[in-house]
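S2.1 Query sequence (Exportin-5 C-terminal domain-containing protein)
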Amino acid sequence: CPYVLSMPVSLYQSHLVPVLSPFAVQAFHKFSLAWKPPAGPLSPAQRAYVEGGLFVGQGIDEENRETLVDKLRREATRSYVDLVQEMFALKGELALAYINLQKEGKQIGGVGREPGSGTNNEDDVQFRVGQVVLTPATQRLRRAHAEALAAALLRANPQLTEALLSFCVGALAWPDSYCCRRTLRTAQRITDLTWRDPAFTEFLGARLFATGVAALVQEPKWLVGMEWDILAVVQMVYLRLVFGGTGLDKMAGESRPPSDLPRQFLLSLPGLSPESIASMEKTLQESNSHKDHKDAIRDTLRLVIEQNATSGAAAAAAAGA
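Output structure tokens follow.
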């Protein structure tokens, strides 16, 4: 991570992207196999790759071996999730680019404005945040760095972009609460950075949105307590793609051509009809409350859950007969 975060912006294309691209591609491939190994018997080399290179003595039983493999898989994935978060300025020192210095920092130097001089020195006011000292001026430089890094991650190389986007979607389906919770924040950041660009419509509308909806409908146990975070991602993608932006986006003069992908995905689910989707969209358009939006989406998806439960009960009854 220091290699990434300390790299001068001018060297991103020549030094960062060529190194990071194959690394990200290999990381996603390896973690995908680690969480969902291929079916059938594996050769020793294949098993070592899937298990992260773990070699243990023959004296260990299979249960303890699986425990070790699971621990290694989780620790490696969590480390990579943390790295991705740092690269997108969601944790670590780069995340300080987006904090409110007045609220989260402690002023330790600078006067802001010299009395009677008419000189504005607000950029020189020093704030301590943890062990870091920032001024508004240095924070702007840090933010420019964060924005340039995000642009390199998402637009400099198609292989790098695809590997990061695929990891973001994949990690939401892997049974680890730590990874899922933090990946949801990454998904929100990527949505904020890419929703205006039609090139990301397929990722947002067909992959990220579908993964979020599937999580809400299937309710896996490792996502317990994250329903509102998932709803936030689903809500944001729907508003920005289907309606071309949120109310605040449009007030700021930002919009994009609408896309029907999220709506069509919902219409493909059992239990949903054009009328139920229209009712949900009416709330999304008429209310400015995030809670109202999330409640409307959740109530709509409950129709899918109820339909699945009914179908499952009917299938079980038929099998019993």
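The CA atoms of residues 24 and 163 lie 6 Å apart. The chain has two domains: 1-105+135-195, 197-316.
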